Amino acid sequence: MKLDNANILITGGTLGIGHATAELLIKYGANLAITGRDENRTQRAARALGAFPITADVADPGDIRHTFTTFMNEFGRLDVLINNAGIGLHKPLDEVTLEDFEKIYRVNVFGAAMMAAGAARIFKKQRHGHIINIGSTAATKSYEGGTVYASSKAALRSMTQSWQMELRRYNVRVMLINPSEVTTAFGREEREERRTEPNKLRGQEIAWAIKSALEMDNRGFIPELAVWATNPF
Question: Where is the Ketoreductase domain (predicted)?
Answer without folding.
Answer: 6-180
